[in-house]
């Protein structure tokens, strides 16, 4: 029985291949709710939950194309210091900033290079290019 189009609640633990935990609804003691296969989740996570039954736990391994995609070099953007707001002039490599898309949506970025002339920002998702592992427990399904 498919959960496609249904509201579901899950607990999950996400790890990288080296065992590093990057996220966990269990640690927050807050299940994640979403509509299955509605594009709210990364593709591989959605697919795993689609055919699960309440009470079932699944362990899935997702390659980057089923998760946040491959890293793209074209998503590293350089901005001349003359275009950078004054309050950002002391920013350091590794810091996170929030940009705005032409549609007004927030776009997270990571500072990857700073010179006196320019700042380079990486607009890739921080999990892009990484294989992800999830332990997913389906808690409930609403029709």
Account of the protein in words:
With 143 residues, the chain is mainly β. The protein folds into 2 domains: 7-69 and 127-142, Roll (Chitinase A, domain 3); 73-122, Beta Barrel (Thrombin, subunit H), CATH 2.40.10.330. Helices cover 8% and strands 41% of the residues. The protein has helices at residues 25-28, 43-50, and strands at residues 7-16, 21-24, 32-35, 57-62, 76-80, 96-100, 106-114, 118-122, 132-142. Strands 1, 2, 3, 4 and 9 form a 5-stranded antiparallel sheet that branches. Strands 5-8-7-6 form a 4-stranded antiparallel sheet, with no helix packed on it. The chain is elongated, with a radius of gyration of 19 Å.
Radius of gyration: 19 Å
Q: Per CATH, what is the topology of the largest domain?
A: Chitinase A, domain 3
Helix content: under 10%
Order of helices and strands: EEHEHEEEEEE
- Strand count, sense and closure of the main sheet? 5 strands, antiparallel
| Total strand segments | 9
Query: pLDDT under 50 segments (min length 5)?
Result: none
Number of helices: 2
Could you report the average pLDDT, rounded to the nearest whole number?
95
CATH class of the largest domain: Alpha Beta
Strand content: 35-45%
Give the terminus-to-terminus CA distance: 12 Å
CATH architecture type of the largest domain: Roll
